[in-house]
Amino acid sequence: MARHLCLPLLLCLVTAMPAQAFLEQRFIYFPTAEHEATPAEAGLTFEEVRFAAADGTPLYGWFVPGEENRPVVVFCIGNAGNISHRVDNLAWLRQLGVGVFIFDYRGYGRSSGVTSEAGTYADLRGALGWLAARGVAKERIILFGRSLGAAIALQVALEQPPAGLVMESPFTSIAAMGWTHYPLLYLLVGWLVEARYQNLVKIDGLQSPLLLIHGDQDEICPPRMAVDLFTRAPAPKELVWIKGADHNSTFLYGGEVYRQAWRRFIEQVGAPRKNERPRSP
């Protein structure tokens, strides 16, 4: 009797593993291998960086130096494309005087490996390790994540509290996204998805100032998710709505509201502490 029960269970487990990988790669991660631009095309001086994730996976990124005494923004991209699709974002951030370190997650762009939730966290830890080796203290770092990147930035901000955290267009969890967009499918196979990215469960442990930016027309990560995250997050915090913006257009539609939100936040968290001499990387 037990033997007959074990055989179907074993079959389910064997078939579940490739199904799990398929679901995550089909519904969560959308990497692109080919780079289409570099910061040089936006007139930016930059350094190509090859570094290792916390687990040793070889990764690739760009470092755009900023003005002395200004923070360094570590940019965690969303789930699609690669860093070459964020060159306009880099140019805009550089106009604020900050340095920017942006990198491809494993499986994206020129980085090796296969993407996973644990892997993306290890990737960001590796990026912070590279900056630390260059003399950039965590007190000078702003972690910035957009969409999926917001979840990655939040997790590592809990482990290594930075000067500040910017979450743009975040979701509350992968489960909430599944129930919102694919309720029947998630009911049937949601248990196969290993990635959780449970932002709502985690955010009350944040020890750094928070800037949360969200489009009021976001249909991918509904505005209620931003409200839920902001309500649960500890102070100091600010929620900025970008009117008319959907999930992918906060940066494009934000205008002066977006710019001033960033400026306020940089001044709030990036001012040198008394008796501290800022160092350039």
List the keywords.
single chain, 281 residues, alpha/beta, Rossmann fold, two-stranded parallel sheet, disordered N terminus, disordered C terminus
Folded structure, characterized:
This protein is α/β, with parallel strands linked by helices and about 280 residues long. It has one domain: 3-Layer(aba) Sandwich (Rossmann fold). Helices cover about 40% and strands about 20% of the residues. It has ten helices and ten strands. The protein has an eight-stranded mixed β-sheet with strand order 2-3-6-4-7-8-9-10, with helices on both faces. The protein has a two-stranded parallel sheet with strand order 1-5. The N terminus and C terminus are likely disordered.
Question: How are the secondary structure elements laid out?
Answer:
Layout: H1 2-27, E1 30-31, E2 47-52, E3 58-64, E4 72-76, E5 80-81, H2 87-95, E6 99-104, H3 117-133, E7 141-146, H4 148-159, E8 164-168, H5 174-181, H6 183-189, H7 199-202, E9 210-215, H8 223-232, E10 237-242, H9 250-253, H10 255-270
Parallel strand pairs: 1-5, 4-6, 4-7, 7-8, 8-9, 9-10
Antiparallel strand pairs: 2-3, 3-6
Helix pairs in contact: 3-4, 5-6
